[in-house]
Amino acid sequence: MTDRSTPDAVLLLGYGSPQGPEDLPGYLAEVLHGRTPSAEMVADYVARYARIGGSPQNRILASLREKLERRLASEGRPVPVYLATKHWHPHITEVLPRAVAEGHRSFVAVPLSPYASTWITEPYRAGIADGLRAAGAGVTVDLQVGWHLDPDWIGYWGEAIRTELGRLHDPSTWVHLSAHSLPKRFRDRGDPYPEILEATARAIVAAAGLERWSFTYQSPGNTTEPWLGPDIEDQMLRARESEGARSQLIASFGFVFDHLEVLYDLDVVVQEFARSRGLDYHRVPMPNDSDRVVSALVRTVGRSLPAPRT
């Protein structure tokens, strides 16, 4: 007999993304914790999404949900996988009550970020708490975080970087391992995010066999407070000036899939910066819904799921 506390369903947790420009006012209000975004801010984000042709995030997440459910079933763990987001739809507070109504009382949840940082995981914990209040008593969620050193996660980046370097045929190419910045106050309060990223970067460097590389941050917020560095544009200039690297390859390992911070912040803003400085911009493809990501997710939720049926 299965214990009632043994998970019988999976929550795949994403950040959330608007489906189209009409969603942006409401979506941004959620991201801003209920504050109404200015008309200028909405217009700016409408232009950003238009520049990249809309975000593929929702499509990628839907594919990951389907692939994870299928893989679990094929390995003897036939449990449903529910996609839930902390911003916009399908919101955690919408999904948990629906899953409970469909007969599930115990869940294992995994965020679509490998990094067990307070900055990343606490909003998911808060969203789950809100979802549990909406779902009613007797429901449990086991949040599994920290899959940044999973062999398939590291393996994806090692292989993808080697493939891109082979395609470029330029031994002077400099590789930037890039992740989202965060305000320095989080680090000062003890958030392990920088140390987690550095450990992941070292593992990727070993997997890819890199010698010419640097760690860098990208996508700092448009605020007056200081954010973590070194900034990616500064590192690109430094690689050219001190290492003679005109060809520069970015591996945005801080993210799992293509979305605004990759397709706009890097492929538009940073690429335009690089070209204006006479640099050749290249980027490693994102993992998205690749088999390696699915394998890492299977391994992570498998910490809590029952043993496979034989």
Characterize the structure shown:
A 4-stranded parallel β-sheet has the order 2-1-3-4, sandwiched between helices. The chain has a 4-stranded parallel β-sheet with strand order 6-5-7-8, sandwiched between helices. The longest helix has 18 residues. The chain is an alpha/beta fold and 310 residues long. Strand 3, helix 5 and strand 4 form a beta-alpha-beta unit. It has 2 domains: 151 residues, Rossmann fold (3-Layer(aba) Sandwich); 133 residues, Rossmann fold (3-Layer(aba) Sandwich), CATH 3.40.50.1400.
Brief synopsis:
By secondary structure, the chain is α/β, with parallel strands linked by helices. It has helices spanning 24-31, 39-51, 57-74, 92-101, 118-135, 151-168, 184-188, 193-208, 232-243, 260-263, 265-276, 291-301, and strands spanning 9-14, 81-85, 106-111, 140-143, 174-180, 213-218, 247-251, 280-283. The mean pLDDT is 95.
What is the end-to-end distance? 15 Å
- Tell me the fraction of residues in β-strands, as a range: 5-15%
Instruction: Describe the largest sheet.
Output: 4 strands, parallel
Order of helices and strands: EHHHEHEHEHEHHEHEHHEH
Low-confidence stretches: none
For the record, the CATH class of the largest domain is Alpha Beta
Which architecture name of the largest domain does CATH use? Answer: 3-Layer(aba) Sandwich
Number of contiguous helices: 12
CATH topology of the largest domain: Rossmann fold
Strand order of the largest sheet: 2-1-3-4
Whole-number radius of gyration? 20 Å
The dominant shape is: globular
Integer average pLDDT: 95
Structural class by helix and strand composition: alpha/beta
Structurally, the number of domains stands at 2
User: Helical amount among residues, as a percent range?
Assistant: 40-55%
Give the total of beta strands. 8
